[in-house]
Amino acid sequence: MVILQTDQPSGPSKPLGKGNTLLLLLPLALLLAPDQAWALQSHGEPEGIYVHQLAHIFYAAALGYLFWDVGRNAFPGKGWRYLQLFCVLMILWNVVAFSGHWLGFHIDNSDLLRPSGYFSSQILGPISGVKLTYFCATLDHLLSVPALFFLFLSLRTLYHSSDTAEKK
Amino acid sequence: MNSLPLAPAIVTDMVGSGFIIVFSFLSLRYAWLLTKKQPENFLWGFLFYFCLTLAAFAISRAMGHLLKHILLFSGNQELWQIFAPVSGGTNTLLMTSLAAVTLYYHKGIEGYQAINRKAKSLKEAYDQLEVAAAQLQEMNLHLEEKVAERTHELSASEKKFRNLFNNSKDMVYFSDPRNHLLTMNSAGFKMLGYPSDGAQALDLADIFKHEKDWDSYHETLLSQGFIKDMEVEFAKADGSTISVLLSATAVYDDKNQFSGCEGIVKDLTRFKTMMAQLFASEKMASVGQMAAGVAHEINTPLGVILGYSQLMMDDFPPESEQAQNLAIIERQTKACRKIVADLLKFSRQSESAREDISINEILLDVIALTQHSLNMDHITVHQDFAQDLPPIVGDTERLRQVFVNLVNNAHHAMEKQGAGELTLISRYDPGRHEVVATVRDTGHGIPENIQPRIFDPFFTTKSVGKGTGLGLSVSYGIIQDHGGRIEVESPVANSQFGEKIQGAAFHVKLPVTLVEAASVSE
Q1: Within a 10 A sphere around the Cβ of A43, how many other Cβ atoms?
Q2: Max Cα–Cα distance, chain B, nearest Å
Q3: What number is the ipTM of this complex?
Q4: Which chain A residues are within 8 Å of B86, Cβ to Cβ?
Q5: Which domain holds residue A112?
Q6: Which residues, including other chains, have CB under 8 Å from residue B425's CB and lie 6 or more apart?
Q7: What is the mean pLDDT of residues A62-88?
Q8: B481 shares a domain with B422
Q9: Model pTM score
Q10: Minimal CA separation from A38 to chain B, in Å
Q11: Mean pLDDT of B197-209
């Protein structure tokens, strides 16, 4: 049988061992003798556009989820259908914007010409598929404006339908 | 195609940016209105934050685009190069936020749905509670009405049974397990002659006259649980006895333990008296019929014996022994004929006259006839005659004979005492249209056990030779012949003090025709 004795008087403190001394000296040595640490990762120029593109994907995915969930919950009324239309158009907008950003890399400054100021800017020929697609992508508001319009319709309809439901 | 002009794209971008701002803010406004209207609705909250982020994104992007166009248009390309990363970064941040808000919606909606389910279940519980409360309230209301209705019905029922209990002419009683009377109606107290507040002091066993009747009652009640039509005798407060018909039911408590009984008692005294009178009447009728037959049969040979004995007396000198013997035969034959005549009177076979007569006159005649002999025995005669009695129709002689018989009987009852009081009373009973003549004495009275037999022919308590036992029989027959009745009372109830006085009273009740009674009433 082992009897635990907790009230034994403590003995004199032991001196630090060799290993412990080395552990204490290492941070000091590192501070006094610095070298290239690579503590921070540097972010190059393309990182911003990558993050932006990833944000488009993230946003599109979130809208896709919203579209699916509204359908799954079968929320009744036109308002929710308009919201789903908004989701679809915004997903398309994301696709267009994503494409526009990506195609932007393939358009060289020499392909753009400003003969008489900014407003006269044009894409120089020969017009390839990339250039044409890029041109179309610059018209992304043709998707985003209707999308926002449907969002407006959705909320207005939801507001009025909630009004009607309350009266009932 | 040599080139694609970007002017339409620039215009679309600028106009579109404007529309984007407008629509995003319009959407934000409706989202805000929805949250204001239904702040508890999570969906509106989500849409509000979504629109808020979208509006921020719209401003950031649209303003960025407009700034770009303005700066590039004004030839400040370098300046735009400074703003472009800021604008792009902000757009990225807001797009990410939009996505985050949208995805956060997932968790939010789950929470909202969970809350909604809870709220719905709470609302259902609340609705059910409300319905239950409404039902309870209605029941409560209805209960009050029901209680009021039942109370009214109970009150009416209680009143009905209380009236039945109080107004019953039969005794109704309730007793405890130890047979103490708990409650008894006034008819019961009256029947037993106790004051009506003496129920607590009474024990059922005390009012049973005979112990064996009480034992039988108690055992039957305990063994069978009820008693039906048990004929017993009860002892009244004054010690007298009444015949009753008793029905009782045992009462048991919740533990099926005997807790007392409830019973109804009917006084049979009147019924028994009536039955006795009927029996006596029937008996007298049959005895009278027999007496009449015997009298007729004996009367003829007696007449022959009397005739021949009188004829033979003429053949002998009066002093001769034969004449003396024949005189004895004649005398005894005449005595026999008198008895026969009395029997005929009893059986109402003799003829009688019918005339208007006054009872008071007859009574005065009887007093005159008997006064002397009564005085000899120190018997005081009292007269208590009602004036203006209506006349009755009858035979004066025969009625006089009745009262002479009654007075003689009274005389005989008092002669041994050496003194006494004879009272002759006459009354008119307008309810029954009867004249009542009473002959009352203070003699030894008539024992109760022989009262039913005193009107039987040849029944007498006198010593041999002092009476034939035909006097009361003849009187009974005569009164019956007049349509009346004769009743005996012994001991006599004192109408003034309610006590019993020793002696006997004979009440002769004779009917008065209605015309005569009306004239008296006038």
Answers
A1: 10
A2: 211
A3: 0.75
A4: none
A5: 47-167
A6: B384, B385, B436, B437, B438, B440
A7: 89
A8: yes
A9: 0.43
A10: 25
A11: 77
